Amino acid sequence: MSTATKTRARIGTRLVTPLVASAVLNPINSTLIAVALIPIGHAFGAGPERTAWLVTSLYLATAIGQPVVGLFVDRFGARRVLLGGAALVMAAGVGGLFAFSLDWLIAVRVVLGIGTCAGFPAAMAVLRARADATGQGVPSGVLSVLAISAQTIMVIGPALGGALIGLAGWPAIFAVNIPLAAVSLALALLWVPKDDRRGLKREPIDVVGILLFSAMLLALLMFVMNAAVGNLYLLAVSAVLGAGFCWKESRSRKPFIDLRMLVGNGPLLRTYLRQALAFLIVYSVLYGYVQWLESARRLSESRAGALLLPMSAVAVAAAAFSAKPTRVKGRLIATSLALLIGSGLLLFAGESTSLAALVGLAAVFGLGQGLTSVTNQTALYGQAPAEQMGTASGLFRTAQYLGAIAASALIALCFGPHADSAGLHRLALVLIVVGGLLLAVTVSDRALGTRKRPAGQAR
Fold it and tell me: Which of 67, 147, 399, 455 has the fewest Cβ atoms nearer than 10 Å?
């Protein structure tokens, strides 16, 4: 029996199943929308610069909501948070059926972003508590299962979205959340243990800190989505709010985000940075590349989604390869190289490029995508304090979605009103720079060469 199989057996399949079902709600909603941007734009007479908000709105809500929901996991319990998140996702699925306007759909995506925040921090908190209670080390097999499921959903998402649009039109990508969230809710009720109130922190919520953090991110991201000289005031507003947030948290006895812990934990901060840079590239491909296939190559939504399926196979294989908690640095370097090489290959993609070459290009990005989540997730598990695993995991996802939001803004900037080959090549040049930075950050991180026992793990 493999190490991964033994770990799953010790943790329990019944426990892992609802955690996976909840955790995949976010990536499926992240990628289903990729092939729907063009038809939704046609329905409402909107170009890429406006439909980009369908992507950004979910990530904006998720970037702000993840650490907040992570805090709720630490304070109120993972099961309660999972149930509340699933109910919110179901409500958003119903709301998506009423396509009153593009702005309405953007608001629905905000609700989806908040509802799908629950899965990852709750799963990480449950796994850490169970592993520490049984004296296990890093549950690498289960972390691999979580990452493989998320990677598979992320890459299958465009193909699934294309199939749903072909069967029932683009509203189906919203309606599919109703049965998915219902299953997630039922599994959490049946198989996730009730929260042990004795282990929860009976402490007040730092509401002021949450509001300052949210306003700071909102101002920053509003500027990123519409970078212009006339909007520079948003950067000033974000800086002032950020200074206020730091002042408040540094003086709070029970802060929303423990800045002292973060400042003193360089390896964890670098893990957040790697995740943000890697997913800036990944999401630029998932959204920008797909729009280029539909617009410049004139492929249907279903064919464009199917062309990304090689990413799924490679991503799943790479994630499975990354299950071991050792040699994290080597795998992260391989991740950086794959994303850098893939970004370079985008420069040679054009209207006359063969489908075989486009399939190969997708496979290169699949390698980087499959490796990055498992390896950074494994690093996070060992670097974050056990008592703050929910909040730290939420910030991990915030870093990922900051990369996604930057990708959305970058796509809008590079493509403008039309997703043509010139815009794709401009996007590629920026991604090459990002890939080089990611490689430099990874190679220079000496902490990745050492093995650290997670805080709270039995010796």
Answer: 455
Per the CB < 8 A criterion, the answer to whether 225 and 106 are in contact is: no
In which residue ranges of the chain is pLDDT below 50?
1-9, 451-459
Find, among 396, 387, 438, 441, the residue nearest to 146 by Cα. Answer: 396
pLDDT at 459: 36
Residues 15-26: tens digit of each pLDDT: 888 988 988 898
In single-letter form, the type of residue at position 356 comes to A
Six token digits for residue 456 = 């709270």
What one-character DSSP code corresponds to residue 254? S
Alpha-carbon span 295 to 276, nearest angstrom:
28
Compute φ and ψ for 241, nearest 5 degrees. Answer: -65, -40
pTM: 0.73
Find the length of the chain: 459
pLDDT tens figures, 32-45: 887 888 889 889 98
Which of 427, 392, 333 has the alpha carbon at shortest distance from 66?
A: 392
Cα dihedral 196/383/152/404 (nearest 10) = 110
Q: Cβ of 322: how many Cβ atoms within 10 Å?
A: 28
